[in-house]
Design goal:
23% helix, alpha/beta, 3 helices, 45% strand, 11-stranded parallel sheet, 11 strands, Polymer-forming cytoskeletal protein
């Protein structure tokens, strides 16, 4: 009796459940899970998981894929959002928009997509911080700064 409850808890943990969409299967709609996906069939819609997705050689996703890690051998069309590592195998075909943390591409993979690599920090914040810090710094070898300093120290020389 107690062992049954433990087994149910283990199966309910994020990332422990495995989902498989076999070759010849076609799904239309949104798919969401806390576990690992292996897709060898066709999915038209959105796939979302906080775990890993493997798209096999015969696998096709047309839509949005949001996951932690992805290993793609098949065809993907749409918006791909991978927070961790995206691995493109030699048979992979990617079309659309890609946002990744890390990217690994084997020779032979086709990627006709716009790709953005993110490290978890928004781009605008770092650019604004750099421009603000650049303006506040006084470089010791800046000629304009030396001229201004000399004019303040010796106003009669002008």
């Amino acid at each position: 009796m107690f062992s049954d409850k433990k087994e149910k808890r283990i199966a309910a943990e994020p990332g422990s459940a495995q989902n498989r969409i076999n070759e010849g299967t076609k799904l239309k709609g949104d798919v969401s899970s806390t576990g690992f996906f292996r897709i060898d069939g066709t999915v038209e819609g959105n796939v979302k998981t906080p775990s890993k997705v493997v798209l096999g050689k015969t696998g096709v996703i047309i839509g949005t894929l949001t996951c932690e890690n992805a290993d793609i051998e098949g065809r993907f069309e749409g918006n791909l959002q991978v927070s961790g590592t995206l691995s493109l195998r030699s048979t992979a075909i990617i079309e659309g928009d890609v946002t990744v943390g890390k990217l690994a591409v084997e020779p032979g993979a086709t990627m006709n997509a716009s790709c953005v690599m993110q490290d978890g920090k928004p781009k605008t914040t770092t650019a604004e911080t750099q421009s603000t810090s650049d303006n506040s710094k006084v470089h010791p070898f800046d000629r304009q700064q030396r001229i201004k300093k000399a004019a303040v120290e010796h106003p009669e020389s002008e």
